[in-house]
């Protein structure tokens, strides 16, 4: 099965359109004010309104207040929610939308147990653990820790780059991969050449 690709941390219309031209399946918009890749609802709307059909828009949240998240949903056409904080399953499923739960790969994390707890999730996104940092660490974790079979689809994230993506896909065989910093020129601004190289890396294994 083909590995899907999501370019996350999109802040500019031109980066979103470049992702589409390169064949990305999804783009990610960060609604977390402490992130250097955060976008306002107006920015997000301007990006999304330019997208053609069949590109999935993912909204990323970190322990967001329910009222704030609902405001975003009313202003921006988001397809899937991505939760990167300590949100319990009932909070994730509260909005009646498909969602992804990010799991930071700390020592001793029980992935089969979390897959069962978040049974309503569409997928688990596995990211690098760094204390106090909900994501975007720029560092990879040991891919050997990902079980060969899990009851949920796996989205691999954390420190992925054009240089290591082919090996990551070969080793883990995830449903999808998620990249942000590994294809940037500076934080929040994507590099078209790196994005293209990343896609070639994925395609070389598919």
Automatic annotation (TrEMBL):
CDD domains: PRAI. GO terms for biological process: L-tryptophan biosynthetic process. The keyword Isomerase applies. Gene3D superfamilies: Aldolase class I. Its EC number is 5.3.1.24. It comes from the Bacteria. It catalyses: N-(5-phospho-beta-D-ribosyl)anthranilate = 1-(2-carboxyphenylamino)-1-deoxy-D-ribulose 5-phosphate. Keywords: Amino-acid biosynthesis, Aromatic amino acid biosynthesis, Isomerase, Tryptophan biosynthesis. GO terms for molecular function: phosphoribosylanthranilate isomerase activity. Pathway: Amino-acid biosynthesis; L-tryptophan biosynthesis; L-tryptophan from chorismate: step 3/5. Residues 6-199 form the N-(5'phosphoribosyl) anthranilate isomerase (PRAI) domain. NCBIfam families: PRK01222.1-4, PRK01222.1-6. Belongs to the TrpF family. This is N-(5'-phosphoribosyl)anthranilate isomerase. The gene is trpF.
């Amino acid at each position: 099965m083909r590995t899907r690709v999501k370019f996350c941390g999109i802040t500019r219309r031109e980066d979103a359109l470049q992702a589409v031209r390169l064949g990305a399946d999804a783009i990610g918009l960060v609604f977390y004010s402490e992130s250097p890749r955060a976008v306002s609802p107006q920015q997000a709307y301007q990006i999304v309104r330019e997208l053609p059909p069949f590109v999935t828009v993912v909204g990323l949240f970190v322990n967001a207040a329910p009222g704030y998240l609902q405001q975003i949903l009313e202003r921006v056409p988001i397809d899937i929610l991505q939760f990167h904080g300590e949100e319990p399953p009932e909070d994730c499923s509260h909005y009646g939308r498909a969602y992804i739960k990010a799991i930071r790969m700390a020592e001793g994390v029980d992935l089969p147990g979390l897959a069962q707890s978040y049974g309503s999730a569409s997928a688990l996104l596995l990211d690098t653990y760094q204390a106090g940092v909900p994501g975007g660490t720029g560092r990879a974790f040991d891919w050997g820790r990902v079980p060969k079979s899990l009851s949920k689809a796996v989205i691999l994230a954390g420190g992925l780059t054009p240089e290591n993506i082919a090996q990551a896909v070969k080793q883990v065989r995830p449903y999808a991969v998620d990249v942000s910093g590994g294809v940037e020129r500076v934080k929040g601004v994507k590099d078209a050449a790196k994005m293209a190289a990343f896609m070639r890396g994925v395609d070389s294994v598919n």
